[in-house]
Amino acid sequence: MADDWWRSAAIYQVYVRSFADGDGDGTGDLAGVRARLPYLAQLGVDAIWFTPWYRSPLADGGYDVADYRVIDPAFGTLAEAEKLIAEARDLGIRTIVDIVPNHVSDQHPWFRAALAAGPGSPERELFHFRPGRGEHGELPPNNWPSQFSGETWTRVPDGEWYLHLFTAQQPDLNWAHPAVRQEHEDVLRFWFQRGAAGVRIDSAALLAKDPALADAADDDTSGYVDRDELHEIYRSWRAIADEYDGVLIGELWVPDPERFARYLRPDELHTAFNFDFMARSWDAAELRASIDDTLAYHAPVGAPATWVLCNHDVTRTVTRYGREDTRFDFAAKRFGTPTDLALGLRRARAAALLSLALPGSVYLYQGEELGLPEVEVPRDRIEDPMHFRSGGVDPGRDGCRVPLPWSAHGVSYGFGSAGEPWLPQPPEWGTYSVERQEADPASMLALYRAALRLRAAEPGFAGLDLTWLSAPDGALAFARADGVVCVVNLGAAEPVQLPAYVRLLLSSDALDADGRLPRDTAVWLRTADPRA
């Protein structure tokens, strides 16, 4: 297991509540994950990234952490987590844990102590408590917008307000306080010592705040996004990670490519999520621009790019690519959006081969390998705070978090042994099940298994080289090393003539009768000439 595994890894994201239920209570857990580790090994992934599995009231799906050193009882125990990490490692799969440093739960001991201690106390200095504005302090201290719609400040009974860029149940920490920094450095060591190979850093660009908490003008986010103080924090984290050969992965929504790249300097983060690629339309020019930009701003710092089509916050790929607007934008999510799932599935299959052929690491969200669509969860079953804080306009993120179907039949399609799962599964869920797809050589699962196996075995997919080849409008073609070529027809007027090749490695769907590439189809080739 090479030390630089992260440079080209295929990383599978597990949202524990929805992966597999080992004890039959309707909620996914670590026992369920442990039982399904052979499935992940057969899929061919190099690492598992677990969304937060710590003690939490689940006001925001676990991203409201009450204790980093305790596994939430709904998921299991710390001993089970340690066993899971070791068992996965025995199968050649590393574990990445999720850290949420911008905020904690309002049930965290620090915040409960701060509320009890009152204004001016040392306990409140760990957060951003401020008096309000207005004649009686009835107005919030500043005008910063929320990441989740709604208010960013909440007033407590003694009259002070506290800052929360997300929900009121997620108070922001004061990263100018040394105790906050020390605690998180201790948490990093805690999980590295238990075998974690990496740490994914949630909302990594939000930790540092303008000390004055000054009002923001129009769309200015400089008071709380991408502040220069962050780099000192991540340099200290990198030193800790290096002690354990660990990896740091940032969730960075930073639109400026130059500033984004600063986080990937050799003494800071190892990699960061590339959200630009995920947010682009199913369009050849759009995706080529994203690929070019991504590779260009990673190159100066020697960091590998990352590619992701979907995650636990984003509309599932099959659904998004089956809509008239194939971009992803949080602000555009609405109930009842028309979707052509057959078209979306065809495009998602092609997108899988495109993303897996690109240089760098790739992230696969659970269920993407099954071609799961977004589920429109009934309003009375929605739990996501994004829905409620939008006044019911945004359907929220629960639609991509519906528990996985493992079996074609049964009360929860094999997710658990008994009872209804925590989110309802639609009646057609069994048709997407692992059981059904394992028996179908043309299934999405079969495609992902074949693609991941080839990606690991073919030397041409190693390294960071990519050379664009000539292709008609609406198509993309590029060469990797050793004559490996990827061609994708995203919307060419006619089926695309393929370059001369000695072997067709894999295709997302069948070629036409003349051996040409139909629309919304991708292919991997070994060519006689790698620059053909």
Account of the protein in words:
By secondary structure, the chain is of the alpha/beta class. It contains 14 helices and 18 strands. It has helices at residues 30-35, 37-43, 78-90, 109-117, 178-193, 230-243, 257-262, 275-279, 284-298, 317-320, 341-357, 385-389, 434-438, 444-457, and strands at 10-14, 47-50, 54-55, 67-71, 94-99, 129-130, 153-155, 161-163, 198-201, 247-250, 271-272, 306-308, 361-365, 467-468, 475-479, 484-489, 501-507, 521-527. The strands form four sheets. An eight-stranded parallel beta sheet has the order 11-10-9-5-2-1-13-12. Helix 5 (178-193) runs parallel beside helix 6 and helix 11 packs parallel to helix 14 (444-457). The relative contact order is 0.10. The mean pLDDT is 95.
Briefly, what is this?
The protein has 532 residues and is an alpha/beta fold. It has 14 helices and 18 strands.
Give the SSE map.
Blueprint: E1 10-14, H1 30-35, H2 37-43, E2 47-50, E3 54-55, E4 67-71, H3 78-90, E5 94-99, H4 109-117, E6 129-130, E7 153-155, E8 161-163, H5 178-193, E9 198-201, H6 230-243, E10 247-250, H7 257-262, E11 271-272, H8 275-279, H9 284-298, E12 306-308, H10 317-320, H11 341-357, E13 361-365, H12 385-389, H13 434-438, H14 444-457, E14 467-468, E15 475-479, E16 484-489, E17 501-507, E18 521-527
Parallel strand pairs: 1-2, 1-13, 2-5, 5-9, 9-10, 10-11, 12-13
Antiparallel strand pairs: 3-4, 6-8, 7-8, 14-15, 15-16, 16-18, 17-18
Protein traits:
532 residues, 14 helices, eight-stranded parallel sheet, alpha/beta, five-stranded antiparallel sheet
